[in-house]
Specification:
heterotrimer; A mainly alpha (297); B alpha/beta (253); C mainly alpha (281); B: alpha/beta; Rossmann fold; 6-stranded mixed sheet; 4-stranded antiparallel sheet; 10 helices; 10 strands; globular; C: 281 residues; MetI-like fold; two-stranded antiparallel ribbon; binds adenosine-5'-diphosphate; binds magnesium ion
């Protein structure tokens, strides 16, 4: 008996440790990002970091063009992905005939499975030339091209989370509205969507969070020019995002150089942004009350 | 024949962590070789009491427990008590039959195997349990089929047999026949009549009729309180509390 | 506009959006399949790159991705399943568990390139593993952890509570109940989650950029402290870094990577559907 209770105790501690490892990793990640970025904050003044020029070879580390680049690409992606994703989720949950759903759901899983480097590759070879021809711009490697692909990458997240939220709306809501003579669309628009709104909001936040962190695709198709977009037309010019900057330059910098540390400054900013977005999304989820389970009776 | 108090409940109060007070100051003896019936309207705390006797309540969030429960005079909530051994001595059958997702045989071997029984003894225990639960003839040729392939009534008797394989001293049954047809119900009840020769049986019946049919001893629960208890013959013919009388004559509940 | 007409317009727009999504996905997958098919051959799959990668095969990259996927599994599966067991079977709803959940959500949201930075800082430099399979696997493993934890926990929670109660009432300890009843029932769901997590790891480029990936390494790694080529990074290299690369080889590589990843997806779907048919509750 003694032996078995030690065993029980050991197992419980072991799985608890596995749970704790999640916390440990977050702290480790944060610690290492801080450790490697602090010299960057020391070498480059805050004023310089917020500067408009990113020319590391000349010792200029202004992050503004990168931040603006990321924002532009992500905003562009959001404008396309949010309505498209929500519409697709509504289609799957409320409108589509059974067979269309059976086709669409696995396809969306396929989309979620396509590695970002493959999407970037297709973007370079197929999408960029079309964008160049359509816009008459000198190159097809533009913020817009990146937005388009990012929208595609954010879609699976948005669709699946939003669809779950719509599905979770009790049938009685729908029946009630339909019984009062509402059309199916009115029911969806006035009853179901408002009831599912917190889930839909979560879907959108998670989709955008996914887009902000995306690296390879944007690096391959946005042209990587570190200039600040100023007009809406700049959507059709090259930009450079925060993620792409890290990926493109980390391989070439000397370890412990200022450039190296500033890349970690970008990294920790991305960490914090994604943390805030995901926390916000999580709070929405946490708020849903949980009922305690009862033992058989 | 003198009555032997197998389980003694002393001033037991239980409150769940959501604040529900399910038992208030209940004191009651449960006797060996008797069918002890706990009855009363839903929400009276009967299930809570049963789950306290084999400490299944440990699985739910019980905020507060006062009082004690003695099994053969020993406190089952004593810190050094072996809970697993306790649950082997106090078996339980639930309202809904829950066969584990395995074959019939594996269901029957499950408890004894955990208790360290090996070899042919496992099949002996299985057969004995099945016979006592009056289901041996129905399943003896299909022991290696999934337990879920049995009918509801058979599943419930399998669950009773599964409890018996542990050769417990006390058997707790929480509305064991609530989902069963009259024939299966009769089979379970007649098994209980035989089992009581050797075991302490504590049953929450699913109706007053069943309570009156099987009770050697009966206790009436109302909203967490034990209203009265005594020999079934007396309690169902000459109850001493008005509320008991109202309930058994169908005036409420 | 009448109510019926507005419904028709709304449904038409929604269907159009869904059709657009379908067309886009089919177009991407179709293009790669059609263009890449021509490059596929036995030599391409089993050969070593030659002529500055402009000829030959991609075998070292395929093997490298296999090794990294395995390394990811070794890192993430025990930790992830353990954590899921803790969350579903042991933990009470306390501040401590909530901290774990927030950590998991946080891990899930961290951009993959930041994982790359972290792996570089901790494993490659601080722990001196160098750019190696070990550093890459650990980095990918930590990145995959949240996916495995959440899907495994969901699978565990889907097992009816009544099984746990009954098993306990038959004299099983908590771990015996988990081992004998809960885990076997949750296994297919856990497996699905593991495969989906590994699928994502196998296709990632950013986390391996600075932790393991070799630009060009025609031989196979001989230990976990070696660098290795990997399919996603190789595709990146030959489509952006090597001028004059034959387009056929690029598409061929993309197709192999896509097949690698999607076959895992199919495996996950198969496990899931067989499980649905077999389970008894
Ligand atoms: N796990 C639980 N958590 C909170 N309250 C509970 C739980 N189980 C039972 N209760 C409450 O305790 C009271 C007694 O329930 P129970 O013991 O099931 O009564 P009975 O079996 O007599 O119907 C009821 O009010 C019920 O709602
Ligand atoms: Mg009850």
């Amino acid at each position: 008996m003694k032996k078995s209770s030690w065993w029980e105790f050991g197992i419980e501690r072991a799985v608890q440790l596995a749970g704790v490892s999640a916390i440990v990793f977050v702290i480790l990640i944060l610690l290492f990002l801080i450790r490697e970025s602090v010299p960057g904050f020391a070498d480059v003044s805050p004023g310089e970091l917020l500067g408009e020029r990113w020319y590391p070879t000349e010792g200029r580390y202004g992050l503004l063009p990168l931040i603006a680049g990321s924002l532009l690409v992500v905003l562009g992606a959001a404008v396309m992905a949010l309505p498209l994703g929500l519409a697709t989720a509504i289609f799957v949950a409320e409108v589509s005939p059974r067979w269309a759903r059976e086709v669409l759901k696995p396809l969306i899983e396929v989309l979620a499975g396509i590695p970002s480097v493959v999407l970037g590759f297709i973007g370079m070879l197929v999408l960029a030339p079309s964008v160049r021809i359509l816009t008459g711009a000198p190159t097809g490697l533009t913020a817009f091209t990146g937005s388009l692909l990012l929208a595609l990458m954010a879609l699976p997240t948005i669709v699946s989370v939003a669809e779950d939220a719509i599905d979770a709306v009790p049938k009685s809501y729908r029946d009630g509205a339909l019984a009062l003579g509402a059309t199916r669309w009115q029911t969806t628009w006035r009853v179901v969507l408002p009831a599912a709104r917190s889930g839909i909001l979560t879907a959108m936040m998670l989709g955008i969070g996914r887009a902000i962190g995306e690296t390879m695709t944007v690096m391959m198709v946005t042209g990587n020019a570190a200039r600040i977009p100023k007009r809406i037309g700049d959507l059709f010019y090259p930009v450079r995002t925060m993620t792409a900057t890290i990926a493109a330059e980390m391989g070439e910098v000397a370890q412990a150089s200022t450039h190296y540390h500033v890349l970690f400054v970008i990294g920790i900013s991305l960490f914090l942004i994604s943390f805030l977005i995901n926390l916000a999304a999580a709070i929405v989820v946490f708020r849903q009350a949980r009922r305690s389970e009862r033992v058989l009776s | 024949m003198s009555l032997e108090a197998k389980v003694q409940i002393k001033s037991l109060s239980i409150r769940y962590s959501d604040g529900t007070e399910s038992l208030r100051d209940v004191s009651l003896d449960l006797y060996a070789r008797q069918i002890n019936v706990l009855f009363g309207p839903a929400g009276g705390g009967k299930s809570t009491l049963l789950r306290a006797i084999n400490r299944l309540n440990d699985l739910v969030e019980v905020a507060e427990r006062r009082g004690e429960i003695l099994l053969d005079g020993k406190d089952i909530y004593a810190p050094d008590l072996d809970v697993v051994a306790l649950r082997r001595r106090v078996g339980m059958v639930f309202a809904r039959p829950v066969p584990l997702p395995m074959t019939i045989r594996q269901n029957l071997h499950y408890g004894p195997q955990l208790a360290g029984v090996r070899g042919t003894r496992l099949d002996e225990l299985a057969e004995k349990g099945l016979r006592q639960a009056a289901i041996w003839d129905e399943v003896k040729d299909r022991l290696d089929e999934p337990a879920s392939s049995l009918s509801g009534g058979q599943q419930q008797r399998l669950c009773l047999a599964r409890t018996l394989t542990l050769e417990p001293e006390v058997i707790l049954l929480d509305e064991p026949t609530s989902g069963l047809d009259p024939i299966s119900t009769a089979k379970v009840e007649s098994s209980l009549q035989q089992l009581k020769e050797a075991y302490t049986i504590v049953i929450v019946p699913h109706s007053v009729q069943q309570a009156a049919r099987v009770a050697d001893q009966a206790a009436f629960f109302l909203q967490g309180e034990l209203i009265e208890y005594g020999p079934g013959a007396k309690l169902f013919t000459r109850p001493s509390d008005q509320r008991t009388e109202d309930y058994i004559t169908g005036r409420f509940g | 506009m009448s109510r019926q007409a507005s419904q028709r317009v709304a449904f038409a727009l929604i269907s159009l959006a869904a059709a657009l999504v379908i067309v886009a996905i089919l177009f991407i997958a179709g293009t790669i399949a059609v263009q890449g098919m021509g490059a596929l051959s036995w030599e391409f799959l089993t050969g070593v790159p030659g002529d500055g990668m402009k000829a030959g095969g991609i075998m070292p990259a395929i093997i490298g991705t296999l090794l990294l996927t395995l390394g990811t599994a070794v890192t993430a599966v025990p930790l992830g399943v353990g954590a899921a067991i803790y969350l579903s079977e042991y933990s009470q709803d306390s501040g401590f568990t909530r901290a774990i959940r927030i950590a998991i959500i946080n891990l899930a949201g961290i951009p993959s390139v930041v994982y790359g930075l972290f792996g570089l800082g901790l494993f490659v430099l601080f722990m001196r593993f160098g750019t190696s399979i070990l550093a890459g696997s650990l980095t990918l493993g930590i990145m995959t952890l949240p996916v495995i934890i959440s899907t495994a926990e969901e699978a565990l929670r889907a097992v009816p509570q009544s099984f746990r109660v009954v098993s306990t009432s038959l004299g099983a300890t908590r771990w015996q109940t988990i081992r004998q009843v809960v885990l076997p029932q949750a296994l297919p769901g856990i497996l699905t989650g593991v495969i989906l997590g590994l699928e994502r790891a196998a296709g990632e480029t950013a986390p391996i950029l600075f932790t393991v990936a070799a630009f060009f390494l025609p031989r196979l790694p001989s230990s976990i402290f070696d660098q290795t080529m990997a399919l996603p990074y190789h595709l990146f290299v030959i489509s952006t870094q090597v001028p004059g690369m034959p387009i056929r080889i690029q598409y061929g590589t993309a197709l192999v990577l896509l097949c690698f990843v999607l076959s895992m997806n199919v495996a996950a779907t198969l496990v899931r559907s067989r499980f649905r048919r077999r389970r008894q509750w």
